[in-house]
Design goal:
The chain is of the alpha+beta class. 63% of the residues lie in helices and 12% in strands. Helix 4 runs antiparallel to helix 5, helix 4 runs antiparallel to helix 8 and helix 6 runs antiparallel to helix 7. The longest helix has 69 residues. It is elongated, with a radius of gyration of 40 Å. The two termini are 50 Å apart.
């Protein structure tokens, strides 16, 4: 029993440690998990489903309409001559005028069914279905926009973590050099070979390097928290794989750019199509409406034609039936003014949507040109930073040697170490800046897949 308990305890510890270890993520994993787990993507997909259901709703207008009725009432039976214009307040009365003004009441019942069907509509229902279909296509296009935005944010967050981690490495090296320098100077000061001001200066430089390291570590934590928001995990569970991002990517020719194929442009095109579909609906609204109707109903009343009243339960069930068939034609004669103004509204809406499309295309073209310019400059900088780093190392070594030989002062060494630390950071981030520019080009082009393929 003890052996079994020990085995269970051991397995639990191993499982806990396995869960505690952060999962190694590639940029492809980060983008894939963000697209799968981020609620905005799921929300966009549900909007597509809702738009598809709206198409089904619009198609139900092709079906006949059937209404059923049952009513039982207790009311007075006084009836008068005269006409009452259509309104929703006074209930209608049927039967002969008896010349009575009594508060005596009788039972009344009614049961019936009315079936209506519009055999043709001059394309109005088809236009309504077209509006719903355009809304579905717009929702689908918006899904691709959301995926592009979420995927770009995940890839950018991934690169941000790598940049912060590289900054931590450089900051840690700066701390180590500052600590060695301080310890060396402290020994010289203790042996009265250097003034105490040198030790104070190196201690200040060490504290400054440690502060920069803390800030770099904070950037790593903040970057992981931002990426974890997209992935739906804890920041502690994120460990990124550098992959090829610490190397300079090859100089490939960027693919041809067609702004009309960008998800944002496609979504805006569908927005224009929705407005045009509504305009088509208005074009088919000023036509007669033809309704094929059929009814069957029965009435019951406790009042006889001579004005006498039947028994206590007379009229509680229908006792007279009727049926009828009709073709009803209605035409909204004076709706032409309202329809005309609604057409004007949709015309202006179409112009506004088209202008937004032109703006999106223009903005995307500008973003792509900016990303290309950034990439060109980033490549030149990445080729120059190794030279800067090598010179900074040589300068730091020479300054240290001059100080040890008594030919220089501690300020020169501290300055050389600062320049070296900055050169190390610039060199480590230069290649990541190139990759970030490639990501910006992919985002402006509307397709992250070439970037993800290059990052394998």
């Amino acid at each position: 029993m003890k052996i079994f308990a020990l085995m269970v305890f051991t397995v639990s510890i191993v499982a806990f440690e396995a869960r505690a270890q952060p999962a190694n993520l590639s940029v492809q994993d980060a983008v894939g998990q963000a697209l799968e787990k981020y609620p905005a993507v799921r929300g966009s997909l549900e909007q597509v489903s809702a738009a598809a259901a709206s198409i089904g709703l619009a198609r139900t207008t092709y079906l006949p309409r059937a209404d059923l009725l049952w009513q039982t009432n207790r009311a007075t039976h006084n009836n008068v001559f005269g006409m009452a214009l259509p309104q929703g307040i006074l209930p209608s009365m049927t039967g002969p005028v008896l010349g009575t003004d009594s508060l005596q009441s009788v039972w009344g019942t009614a049961v019936g069914a009315l079936v209506q069907w519009e055999p043709f509509d001059f394309g109005l229902r088809r236009a309504l279905v077209g509006v719903a279909e355009s809304q579905r296509e717009q929702a689908r296009a918006q899904v691709e926009v959301t995926k592009l935005q979420v995927g770009t944010a995940a890839a950018d967050g991934f690169l941000t973590i790598l940049a912060a981690q590289e900054t931590v490495v450089a900051a840690q090296s700066a701390v180590d050099r500052a600590r060695v320098l301080h310890q060396t100077v402290q020994v010289l000061v203790n042996n009265q070979l250097r003034p105490g001001a040198d030790a104070a200066r190196t201690r200040s430089e060490l504290a400054l390097a440690e502060t920069q390291l803390i800030r770099a570590q904070q950037s790593v934590d903040v970057s992981k928290a931002a990426l974890s928001q997209l992935l739906g995990v804890t920041p502690q569970s994120i460990a990124v794989l550098p992959g090829p991002f610490l190397q300079l990517p090859p100089s490939d020719t960027p693919p041809a750019f067609d702004p009309s194929r960008h998800p944002q442009a496609i979504a805006q095109t569908q927005e224009v199509n929705i407005v045009r579909a509504r305009e088509s609906t208005l074009d088919r609204s000023y036509y007669p409406r033809f309704l094929l109707q059929g009814t069957s109903f029965a009435r019951g009343t406790g009042l006889r034609p001579n004005g006498s009243v039947g028994g206590a339960f007379s009229g509680t069930f229908p006792n007279t039936q009727n049926w009828g068939l009709a073709m009803t034609v209605t035409f909204p004669v004076f709706d032409f003014a309202a329809i005309r103004e609604r057409k004007k509204i949709e015309t202006f809406n179409e112009r506004a949507a088209t202008a937004r499309y032109d703006q999106i295309v223009q903005d995307l073209t500008g973003q792509l040109e900016q990303a290309r310019a950034t990439l060109s400059a980033a490549r030149r900088i990445a080729q120059n930073t190794p030279i800067q780093l090598d010179a900074a190392r040589t300068s730091e070594q020479q300054a240290s040697a001059r100080y040890k030989a008594g030919l220089g002062n501690v300020i020169e060494v501290a300055e050389a170490q600062r320049i070296l630390a900055q050169a190390e950071i610039d060199d480590s981030l230069a290649r990541l800046t190139v990759w970030r520019a490639l990501l910006a080009i992919a985002a402006a082009s509307g397709n992250l897949q070439p970037f993800l393929d290059q990052a394998k």
